[in-house]
Write a structure and sequence with these properties.
single chain; about 200 residues; Cyclic Phosphodiesterase, Chain: A; about 30% helix; about 30% strand; elongated
């Protein structure tokens, strides 16, 4: 049986540098270079909706039921604003995910940072409406949300680090073009109940 999909708000990477050669050039620094198609930058990780709903129900000791949390979260996600496409720059590769992921550190324009912050504020509002107390503690401890740090590091995961060194690797500056924000695995918002 296939694992339930993870839900994120992301922007797709439409173009990196001057073309395929620039992307393939990252292979000298990265193992298992990912395919260019599907590369993206995550703005907000929500996780598996059923797991998040269960986390909310457990945190509120059943005051907010999992079904209610699931329904409201899906509606909340559908109601989020859309960030228009934008250009950004990357000048180095960084190691993330406890050392398992190599990513381009993205220098995003301030409006993108503001938008990402607005998503976090909106998440606080959703959780407050679901009767979650100590919201920051919940966000950092919810297995579904999976946050290890309150700080957002804009990045595009491109493969695995070649070495165990965790130091950033400076690269030739690359211009990145991103599309409009979207809900990854949006089809899953209908859930197993079909609506």
């Amino acid at each position: 049986m296939q694992a339930p999909p993870r839900i994120t708000i992301e922007v797709p990477l439409l173009k990196l540098g001057e073309g395929p050669a620039d992307f393939e050039g990252l292979g000298s620094h990265v193992d298992a270079l990912r395919r260019p198609r599907g590369l993206h930058m995550t703005l907000l990780h929500v996780g598996i909706l059923e797991d998040l709903a269960a986390d909310v129900a457990a945190w509120t000791k059943g005051f907010t039921g999992a079904d209610v949390a699931l329904e409201r979260t899906a509606a909340w996600l559908r109601g989020l604003p859309v960030l228009e496409g934008f250009a950004a720059c990357a000048r180095r590769l960084v190691v993330l995910g406890g050392g398992s992921v190599s990513g381009l550190e993205v220098e995003v324009p301030q409006p993108v940072r503001d938008f990402q912050l607005s998503l976090v504020v909106a998440l606080h509002g959703l959780l407050d409406g679901l009767a979650v107390d100590n919201i920051d503690d919940f966000i950092l401890s919810s297995p579904a949300l999976g946050y290890r740090s309150p700080r957002w590091i804009p990045h595009v995961a491109v493969g695995r680090p070649k070495s165990r060194y965790r130091r950033p690797i400076e690269i030739e500056p690359l211009v990145l073009e991103f599309g409009a924000s979207r809900i990854r695995n949006e089809w899953a918002l209908d859930g197993p109940r079909g609506g």
